[in-house]
Amino acid sequence: MTPDSPLNGAAPRFRPRPWTELTTPQDVEAWIEEHNRSLMEHIGPQETGYGVCFTLAEGGNIYMQTGADAVMLDVDPDARWVAPLIVAATGAEEPAGQAWVLPDDKLVQLIIGLSSLVASTTLVSGHPFGKGARRQASGW
């Protein structure tokens, strides 16, 4: 739970933004650039666990953090229904838990695959992104 979590009685720091479906690699690349600018503008250098939360129209959230060579997903239990789509879009194997580690070159395919299912996105900070699962799944 982050210090600005609504569970702590504080107003949320970031607000959901309605999603517009992305259908081409160029659309996704433009969204990635915009997302990266937003992160640089709103996330401080001392903050960890930052990324984006995709709220799915049919239920559940997928938290995503990107790095230099990997895409980390935290698929909450209510969004587990989307696992076959993630597998189909990226060629990844479904993990035993909710933490996924994908090669960074699968990001565009992932976003295109998920795009029609997303209702909104929200920047996040302080998300645990499967603490411990990342090392186990990727060998880091």
Describe the 3D structure.
The structure is a single chain. With 140 residues, the chain is α+β, with helices and mostly antiparallel strands. The protein has one domain (6-138). The chain has 4 helices and 6 strands. It has helices at 25-42, 83-90, 107-115, 133-138, and strands at residues 17-18, 51-56, 61-66, 70-75, 99-103, 118-124. A 6-stranded antiparallel β-sheet has the order 1-6-2-3-4-5. Helix 2 (83-90) crosses helix 3. The longest helix has 18 residues, at 25-42. The radius of gyration is 14 Å and the shape is globular. Residues 1-7 and 132-140 have low confidence and may be disordered.
Q: Characteristics of this structure?
A:
140 residues, alpha+beta, six-stranded antiparallel beta sheet, 23% strand, globular, disordered N terminus, disordered C terminus
| Sheet with the most strands: spatial strand order | 1-6-2-3-4-5
Helix fraction, binned, reads 25-40%
Mean pLDDT: 85
In angstroms, what separates the terminal alpha carbons? 25 Å
SSE topology string: EHEEEHEHEH
Question: What is the structural class?
Answer: alpha+beta
Main sheet: strands, sense, barrel: 6 strands, antiparallel
Task: Explain the layout of strands and helices.
Elements lengths: L16 E2 L6 H18 L8 E6 L4 E6 L3 E6 L7 H8 L8 E5 L3 H9 L2 E7 L8 H6 L2
Antiparallel strand pairs: 1-6, 2-3, 2-6, 3-4, 4-5
Give a nutshell description of this structure.
With 140 residues, this protein is α+β, with helices and mostly antiparallel strands. It is built from 4 helices and 6 strands.
